[in-house]
């Protein structure tokens, strides 16, 4: 039998163990400090109200409210959030759950939103995510790459350009969604290529149907096909597209076809890797404000 004295000791030991577990959990939950957030107004950082400045840890969640907080990371990246934005921060990544944000500097930093990853390559990238899951990406000074979570290239956003990307709803287990691209058909070193005029991606085209369209080389065409993940693309292409349909849109040469497309604003939508890519109107920016940098302490 356990006497009263032993019961008291067991209770004390249990309380000590619980306290140690709680302390360990708090310490583990705090993570590693990776930067500083600051704003003129108040914001919420890891479910705590903050005014002015707060420390950002690995995995911290920041909710901007009506403020536009700026986060200076130790990696050198500076992130500014728009109002009514929620984002999770990591040393090399920001996960944009809602709202808008811009990231500048910091080689290797990515912005993840709506299942897509935006790679700014040390430039200034603006990303906005809407309630439906689509995102708008603007690249300033340097191009930006957009990939799927698995690394498939979806779009190349040119410097000063903006694209809207809307992932299609595809049921798990179904066949890969067909891609639809528009551009000039090129034959080089024994391979067929096409660079989509909207998404900016270059793919190698394969399939017996190409033999029926050899005269279309140099013309502007629309192709539909399925990505072949088992084939390695030729040099200069991001993937191999098994073409099932080709529609010739222009019989002009390459230069004239590109000029015609630009002049008439046609072919401004593509489907790449299950993502609908379209052009955002010129001048449509996110409009974030910039805040002063704060020193980061260890």
Description:
The structure is a single chain. By secondary structure, the chain is mainly β. The protein folds into two domains: 33-167, Jelly Rolls (Sandwich); 179-273, NigD-like N-terminal OB domain (OB fold (Dihydrolipoamide Acetyltransferase, E2P), Beta Barrel). Helix content is 13%, strand content 45%. It has two helices and 21 strands. The chain has helices spanning 4-30, 254-264, and strands spanning 33-45, 48-57, 61-63, 70-73, 78-81, 86-90, 93-104, 110-113, 116-119, 124-129, 135-140, 144-148, 153-157, 162-167, 179-188, 191-195, 202-206, 220-227, 240-248, 269-272, 275-279. The strands form two sheets. Strands 1-3-6-7-5-4 form a six-stranded antiparallel β-barrel. Strand 6 and strand 7 (93-104) form a beta hairpin. The longest helix has 27 residues, at 4-30. Residues 4-8, 10-29, 253-267 and 291-298 have low confidence and may be disordered.
């Amino acid at each position: 039998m356990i006497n009263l004295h032993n019961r008291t000791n067991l209770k004390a030991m249990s309380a000590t163990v619980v306290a140690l577990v709680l302390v360990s959990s708090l310490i583990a939950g705090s993570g590693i400090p990776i930067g500083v957030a600051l704003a003129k107004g108040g914001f919420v950082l890891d479910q705590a109200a903050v005014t002015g400045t707060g420390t950002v840890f690995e995995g911290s969640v920041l909710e901007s409210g009506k403020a536009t907080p700026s986060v200076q990371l130790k990696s050198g990246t500076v992130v500014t959030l728009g109002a009514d934005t929620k984002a999770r921060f990591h040393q090399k990544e920001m996960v944009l759950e809602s709202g808008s944000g811009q990231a500048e500097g910091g080689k290797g930093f990515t912005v993840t939103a709506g299942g897509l990853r935006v790679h700014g390559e040390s430039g200034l990238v603006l990303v906005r995510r809407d309630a439906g899951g689509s995102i708008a990406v603007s690249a300033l000074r340097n191009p930006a790459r957009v990939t799927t979570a698995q690394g498939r290239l979806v779009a190349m956003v040119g410097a000063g350009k903006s694209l809207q990307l809307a992932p299609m709803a595809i049921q798990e287990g179904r066949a890969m969604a067909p891609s639809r691209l528009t551009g000039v058909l090129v034959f080089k070193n024994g391979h067929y290529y096409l660079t989509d005029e909207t998404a900016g991606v270059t793919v190698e085209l394969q399939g017996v149907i190409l033999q029926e369209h050899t005269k279309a080389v140099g013309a502007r065409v629309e192709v539909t096909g399925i990505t072949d993940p088992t084939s390695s693309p030729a040099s200069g292409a991001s993937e191999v597209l098994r073409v099932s349909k080709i529609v010739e849109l222009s019989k002009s040469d390459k230069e004239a076809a590109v000029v015609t497309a630009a002049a008439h604003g046609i072919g401004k939508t593509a489907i790449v890797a299950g993502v609908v890519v379209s052009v955002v109107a010129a001048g449509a920016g996110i409009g974030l404000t910039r805040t002063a940098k704060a020193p980061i302490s260890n």
